[in-house]
Write a structure and sequence with these properties.
about 5% strand; 4-stranded mixed β-sheet; mainly alpha; single chain
Length: about 425
């Protein structure tokens, strides 16, 4: 059951239904659990409405909350453009529905959040695996908690930012278990917690390690993965300062060299302050448009999702006739800020041209939801998609809607004639 604000329901509905459907189809087999009753998904156009709905208080600093079979969260319009990735947030929350209900809500907080973060990273719509620099610093300073005490970081934090660090640690723990012992080990832990069991018991039953031995193995894993960055974090920040000075002087050769160095040191950094966008700017300033596009494609592949940058990258790829790559960027933009009418039109036409009418319908539905000045083209696109899906009756109705908007729209007239001839 999907509940959306009237103001953007028509534009959001195709994507919410698509993502929720994929999430249910993904998490059911992954956790061996079938929904016992309808799940309710609510997206709020106004952040304070979401706050009152969930904790009876406006102004809360949350993006989404799950209560049993109910998930409530901000819609993309509830916050500034690009402030959060709504598709990834919804994926995270639906994962909670499955893991909590499968265990009758007996999961410890760290494992519940860890599984949702792990699913964001491994199966969700966003490839982003960036750890904030503050989290890297906390790991380097030995501020991670033993796994047996990890819940404390969520409910009784002892330093500023520990809750965020605990989210990342829990995600890394689940990711490490899946990488080393397979996803089935996480399912075994889930079944153990359902009895219920302690963290020590669940670890022992799933992977045969005590919490203390697991902490040792996990520390080795994190050191192998992030040790070079942790040890050179002060140097990394120094390069960032140098890059800022080079940008102020528009010394593009130095900017490119410094940005490339930062990419090498921490390629997963794609959020605010990432070096990829600066690298693209430096290459573009030196007349290397192709190099700028390649830098942004790498940023996108690693999970970069700033709306303005995605939009410009999509346009550049379209101009270069790299349509499949452009389509992937368009799709990524939809999960951050799905309100670009021309982008939906282009993507719908692209999917029609490449034989994917089911995807085309989603784009034209979203386009109509944005109430374009000329809806006839969107209705015609839906009609063409319906025809390709062998639903001539629906296609006729949709082409008539196009002609209702624009009676002399020749492409719609031609399609209607073809449909009528096909029925004779």
């Amino acid at each position: 059951v999907v509940r959306l604000d009237r103001e953007d329901a028509d534009a959001l509905e195709p994507y919410v239904v698509d993502l929720v459907t994929r999430a249910v189809q993904t998490f059911g087999p992954r956790y061996g659990f079938r929904l016992a009753r309808p799940m309710i998904v609510e997206l709020y156009h106004d952040h304070d409405d979401f706050g009152v709905r969930t904790v009876s208080t406006p102004g809360i600093g949350l993006l989404g909350v799950t209560f049993g079979y109910l998930t409530a969260m901000d819609s993309p319009k509830a916050r500034a453009a690009g402030e959060f990735h709504w598709g990834s947030t919804l994926w995270h929350e639906i994962a909670h529905v499955f893991t909590l209900e499968a265990t009758d809500h007996r999961l410890p907080r760290w494992f519940s959040e860890g599984l949702s973060v792990y699913e964001e990273w491994s199966t969700g719509p966003l490839a982003d695996r960036e750890l904030p620099l503050d989290t890297i610093a906390a790991i380097g300073d030995g501020q991670l908690l033993p796994i047996a005490e990890l819940d404390r970081g969520f409910v009784r934090p002892s330093y500023r930012g520990q809750v965020q660090v605990s989210y990342m640690q829990a995600g890394l723990v689940c990711d490490f278990i899946a990488e080393r012992w397979g996803h089935e080990a996480l399912r075994k832990m889930l079944r153990s917690f359902a009895r219920p069991a302690s963290t020590a018991e669940a670890l022992g039953e799933a992977i045969g390690l005590t919490p203390e031995r697991f902490d040792e193995r996990f520390a080795e894993h994190v050191r192998a993965r992030y040790g070079e960055l942790m040890d050179g974090l002060d140097e990394y920040r120094g390069v960032v300062r140098q890059l800022g000075r080079a940008l102020d002087m528009e010394d593009w050769i130095s900017v490119e060299a410094l940005a490339r160095d930062l990419v090498r040191r921490y390629p997963e950094r794609v959020g605010r302050g990432n070096p990829y966008e600066v690298l693209a700017e430096a290459r573009r300033a030196q007349g290397d448009e192709a190099g700028a596009v390649e830098a942004l494609l790498e940023w996108h592949a690693r999970g970069g999702h700033k709306p303005a940058t995605l939009k410009n990258l999509a346009i550049s790829l379209r101009e270069a006739e790299r349509d499949e790559e452009a389509a992937a960027v368009h799709e990524s933009l939809n999960w951050v800020m799905p309100y670009w009418a021309e982008g939906h039109r282009w993507l719908g036409e692209h999917y029609l041209a490449t034989g994917r009418p089911d995807r085309a319908r989603i784009e034209f539905d979203a386009l109509l939801g944005l109430r374009p000045e000329d809806p006839a083209a969107a209705w015609l696109g839906k009609a063409r998609a319906s025809r390709a899906l062998d639903d001539s009756g629906l296609a006729r109705r949709e082409v008539l809607y196009a002609l209702e908007s624009a009676p002399f729209y020749r492409p719609a007239q031609r399609l209607l004639l073809e449909l009528v001839r096909g029925d004779i």
